[in-house]
Amino acid sequence: MLYIYFHLKNHPALRHPSLKRRGKFVSLSVESTYKTYTVEEAKTRLESYCAYQERCHKDVENKLKEMRMIPEARNHIIHHLIQHNYLNETRFAQAFARGKFKQKSWGKTRIIRELKLRDISTFNVKIALQEIPENAYLFTFEALVEKRLNQLTSEKNLLKKKKKLADYLLYRGWEANLVWEKVNSIN
Questions:
Q1: Same domain, yes or no, for 25 and 47?
Q2: How many independent structural domains does the chain possess?
Q3: In the chain, count of helices (H) and strands (E)?
Q4: CA 158 – CA 186 distance, rounded (Å)
Q5: Interior CA angle at 126 toward 137 and 61, to 5°?
Q6: Are residues 140 and 172 in the same domain?
Q7: Residue 117: CB atoms within 10 Å
Q8: What is the rounded CA–CA span in Å between residue 129 and residue 127?
Q9: Are residues 128 and 138 in the same domain?
Q10: In degrees, to the nearest 5, what angle opens at C-alpha 115 toward C-alphas 111 and 56?
Q11: CA distance 41 to 47
Q12: Do both 140 and 178 map to the same domain?
């Protein structure tokens, strides 16, 4: 009879009933191995990670935690990335705001909320919002309203139509005063 033994510390499937064969347990285990990185290897990987697209400090910090780097090494690597201009919070915030507005038609409220989730400073959030021209912002808002109203032509109840339009725009982060002003003007 063949028995395979492995050691998985605190693994919930260890000696699980589904592994039972003819009254005897076949215990499968694999040594939990993961890649370890030196500081120089981690620096190189994070340089290419940051060069591929703009990253915020939180993204880089999470990546370093995934790589199981100790806090001192994390701080050293982040300092290196900032010094060599791979990591720049202002540049990230500007690119994020510009991209989400142009690609996903997000409003300022949603952009602010998402930047705050990434721990971007208020100063950088304000700079990022300056990337969105006011005339383009209002034009996009009007285009979204038209698009959604065209999708809602089958809705006969005016109140339901207004609610669906408002929900659509508010979900995308458009300011409530703009949304309700537009919704109330619909007949």
A1: no
A2: 4
A3: 9, 2
A4: 9
A5: 115
A6: yes
A7: 10
A8: 6
A9: no
A10: 135
A11: 10
A12: yes
Give the residue from 171, 167, 163 showing the smallest Cα distance to 114. 171
Structure tokens at 154: 């089958």
φ/ψ of residue 42, rounded to 5:
-65, -40
- Tens-of-pLDDT digits for all 187 residues of the chain? 344 444 444 455 555 555 555 555 555 555 557 888 999 999 999 999 999 999 999 999 999 999 999 999 999 999 999 999 999 999 999 999 999 999 999 999 999 999 999 999 999 999 999 999 999 999 999 999 999 999 999 989 999 999 999 999 999 999 999 999 999 998 8
Domain that holds residue 2: 1-33
Global pTM? 0.77
Query: Bridge partners of 178?
Result: none
Tell me the C-alpha distance between 104 and 48, whole Å: 26
User: Could you tell me if 44 and 83 lie in one domain?
Assistant: yes
Query: d(Cα 187, Cα 174) in Å, to the nearest integer?
Result: 21
Based on the domain organization, do 1 and 12 belong to the same domain? yes
Give the DSSP per-residue string, 104-148: H---HHHHHHHHHHTT--HHHHHHHHTTS-HHHHHHHHHHHHHHH
Residues 52 and 13 in one domain: no
Question: Residue 6 has which token pair?
Answer: 């492995």
187: DSSP letter: -
For 86-97, b/e burial (b = at least 16 CB within 10 A) is bbbbebbbbbbb
